[in-house]
Structures are given as structure tokens and as C-alpha cells.
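S.,

Sequence below, as promised.
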Amino acid sequence: MQITIDGHAIEAAAGDRLVDLVRRLGLDTDSLATRPLAADIAGEVFTLNYVPLRGVGNDDAPTTERLRRAIANGGGKVKLIRYDEARGRAVYERTLLFVFFLAMRSLFPNATARVNHAIGAGLDIEVTADDPLTEEDVERLREKCREIVDADYPLERQRLSIANAIDLFERDGQEDKVRLLIWRSFTYFDVYRHGDYADYFYGEMCPSTGYAKVFDLQYRNGGLFLLRPSNRNVDIATRYVYSPHIAATFEESEEWGQLMHCTTVADLNGMVESGRIRELIRVNEALHERRFAEIATMIFQRGAKAVLIAGPSSSGKTTSANRLATQLRVLGKSPILLSLDDYYIDRKYVQPDENGEIDFEHLNMIDVPQFNRDLEALLKGERVEIPSFDFATGSRIYNKHFVQLKDDAILIIEGLHALNPALLTPAIDKRRIFKLYVSALTTINLDNHNRIPTTDVRLLRRMVRDYLTRGSSIERTLGMWESVQRGERRWIFPYQEGADAIMNTALVYELCVLKKHIYPLLDKIAPDSPCYDEVHRIIKFLNYIRDAAVEDEIPPTSILREFVGGNAFYRKEPEK
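The prediction came back faster than expected:
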């Protein structure tokens, strides 16, 4: 069988793995920056351990048929996936987690470890054991992980029936996986094995443990951070940077999850099944309202005259601004809402980059000098005409919208770049500014070893909103998402820790509502779509979640209403 790997034709003999062919072509390297981690075949991701052509009597039918079908559909073309792709980073993270949990099992067989969330390039891991984890224990774990990496154990994949998988994890004490598998809609389940240890990370992995060379461990208050490759140089582990504000927000949200008895997808499914989902919605929304009230009190006590609100895409910035305005009114303030979007420069002045593309996330898309002048004038009590941006014509217009701050007035300004220091000139008294960062910092997990990335929830929100309110297809939203994320990494995340307060807009119940909206749309995406692999990944994850028809329970001021419709803040007042 002849196949083409990254443009190189090669004959695959019976029993050859993809990784064998990659090495024969000289495409394997020691650098994570260039080393192939998985394969893209007809838009689907495959492990490099797959065998395109098996000998007679050597066939693991379901997997082999899928691969053969993909190779046929792709015309025998294989594209190698490396760490510079989001898919490659996900493959690497799964492999690294397998190495880590194998090390945990070897050194602390009676301990339980849970991946809580990611902060920067580090994964926060909570360890529960008879004795608290110590710095010496973390050092032993680091050395054990190195030993496993150096041993280069092959990651053997095995397909089990659901009944056998449940029995396996019950005997192994992984009750979290047992509870999740009860909700799996398929009759089979794939696990990865080494020796007597079996685990699964809901996606393809590298061929062996030797690929996960770049990592580090950092002790943290009885737990640890598993540090992934650095964004600047992927061949070295990221440096541990303590982010107290983000960490505290995650911890508070995890406490909320425990309070609501909903920390995993299995918990959420149980509430949907029993009908307790409605009470969960009420409690979750009440917790959000309390947090908005707390932030409003902080602003009031500061005596701030302007609140700057920033956050990544689909965090609910607009609804957050309006809910905060409501709470400030309760305290006797008269909020004035403004958007940085209205300071976009006219599209006719936008210059494309060297590749002929326009980066709409760039700070230069904002008329920063004009915003600086207007903010300075407003804080001095002057009367200022505020522009609005007409997205239909791509131009900024002035419609005699004048604003002046009276004694009880306070500005609320939201936008992508609102926390960027460039927006505040030296002439502005920083004590009169309150900076708020909002983001959907998801804390609900699939199971102890598989977190749900915050990015995934925001992507689901955006796909639903873009389709319902902007008429955008799933393919269009997915096609822009990588660019959106690049902009967030450059223009938003570096400033999040400098906020005066952080509002976590994630709702533990939202996945069962978002699935109801998005699943039928995803299910229509054809295998020949350029975004099919990403759609397939999302569908696999959503298959574990029960959807719920509970929108009549969701308040009109909920963050979720910004994405599924029915948001009270977007309703137009009837003309008198």
C-alpha cells in the first residue's frame, strides 16, 4: 500500500505502524517543536501507532476499518500533527498526564489525584492521601516521571465493552470513571494500558511515553502544578508563575461546585435525570448575583469613577457590565455603559499585515489616542460626544451622544482591550479606575483525570450565539477560533492578574443547555468539512452530557442568555 506522508510517498508493508513510516522517511526529530505527535488523515486525528495494512488474521476490525476508510477518503495522504497545532498540544497533554498518573500509581497507589484546571501553561492537580503531599514527594514524582519517559513504554490501546470497562475501573478504584461510563451511549470504550495500569484521556495520544520529555512539577500547598512546555520555547518547560487572583477565583468556583454537589459531568447528568437541575440553576444564578453585588460594593468603597471590563471571547462581558450596572444602581450610583468597540478605527484605514491578512484582535484596531482624550475629559467632568461604530459600513460615526459624569455617575467600559495599560495615560488617576476581568473559568470535570478546558465552553457559547444571532455557520466560527485564541493570548491573558477583581461567568449547568442547541448543528457537519475533526472531538465530549429542556428556568439576566437568546439587556424598549 502506498501512502503519502507530508508530501513524501512511501510503501507501507503489512504490520508497519505510521510511526515506523515516519522514522523511515527521516521525519522524526528529538525537538518537540518539530516532532510528529499524531496524524491527520481525511480530517481525522489518528495515533501514530496505527497500522495502515495488517496481515491476514491480524485485524482489530473497528479501528482498522476507520483508518482504512480515512486513508481511502484522503487519497492515501497523511498530514503529520505537531505541537504547533492545538490538536498536537492536546495529544501531548494527554500523554503527559498518562505519564504523571502512572508515576502517581507507582509511588502512591492509595492516593487520589484530580486535575482541577489550567493556569497559564500549568495544570493544577489536587492530591488526596492519608498524609499530605510534601515537596520531597513532588521531587520523587518528578524523578519517577523522568524514569517512565526514559523507559519509552509503548502506549497500548485496547477496546473493551462498556460492561468490561466499568468492571475494570471498579476493581481499580476509579469510581469517577465508573460514574461517567454509565452515561456513555456507545457499547465500547477504549483504554490505554501499561502493565496493570489502565486509563483513558478522551482522545488520541503519542505512540509512547518517551514523547513526553518536556515537563516539570511544582509543589503547591499539598498539591502540585504539572508544568507543560513553554509557549516561547516548547523544548523547555514553562516557568512556574504564581497567579493568586486567578487561583483564588478557581478555588472559590470549586467551592461553589461542592456546595451545589456538582463537580463532574456525572453529577450534572444525575441532576438532569432526577429533575434537580432546576434547583441547581436557581442556586448557581444566586451565587452569580451575590458575586456581582460583592464586586459592586468593592467599586463603591473604592470611590471609582470608571470600571474597565475585559475578558476573552464569549465570557459574557456585555451581560456582566449590565448586571454590574444594576448592582451599582442599588448602591445609589448612575452607571453609564460604554463599549470600546465604538472606538474602532474606520476599516478604510486598516492596513493588512505582511501576509495580506487583517488582525481584528490587534490593539491598533482601536483609536487609543481618541479614547485616551475622551476618558481624560470625562474624568475631569467635561461634556464629551461619544462615537458609535457602524459595523455595516465599517466606520465610526457621531450621533450627538453626549456624556458627562455627574457626582453619582460612574462609567462602565467593556471591551477586548479594556485592561491594557495603553488605555490609561499618566494623566489619569489610577485610583479612580476599577479593573474587572471576566471569564468562563469552568471547573466541572469529565472525571478526575480529564478536565473540561475553559476554551471549550467558550467555544460552545460562541458557536451557539453566532448561529442564533449572527447567522454564522459552525464552520465559520470554528475557522476563526484559532485566530481568536491567538489574540487572547497576546492581548488579554497577560493582563488578567492585574485586575482588581475577577468574575467567573461559568455556570455549572450550562453544558446541558448548550448541548441542546449545538448538538443538532454539529451532527450535520459532513466528514469532508475542513473542521470535521474538531467537530468530531466536540461531539465525543458532548456524548457524555445529558441535554436538558430547562430554558424556562433560566433568568432573563443570566450570563447564559447572552448566548442562547432571551437576554433582557438586549430587548428594545417599546416606542412611546
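The two ends are 75 Å apart (CA to CA).

Coffee later?
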